[in-house]
Sequence to fold (118 residues):
Amino acid sequence: MKSDDSLFDTAIAALYSSEHQARTKEALQKTALRRECTIQDMREYMRRAGTSLPQSVAIVHITGTKGKGSTACLCESILRESAGKKTGLFTSPHLVDIRERIRIGGRPISKQVFGQAY
Fold:
């Protein structure tokens, strides 16, 4: 069995591989088609991480061109600290560590969880 660091390194290598970096018109079209399966993909990643999404969960989806990450972090912090809610946050891209893209309860997920889920 691979170590947590090895799983994490494998996941990072796969994420940064050319397969995940669309650079041609054909690759962009293929990526656009994949967007039709994002809900199923998310459920699969959650299954791999050993978690599931309750039917009663409330979701805040932030869109726009600028300030999404800051707005999402602010909303997550208010919900967690002031309202006492359990929170999960996904943002992209990351600034320093790729694990900061996915936070549970205000903390980045562990290398182990990232490596196993990816």
Q: What stands out?
A: The beta strands are 88-90, 102-104, 107-108. The chain is about 45% helix and 5% strand. The first strand starts at residue 88 and ends at 90.
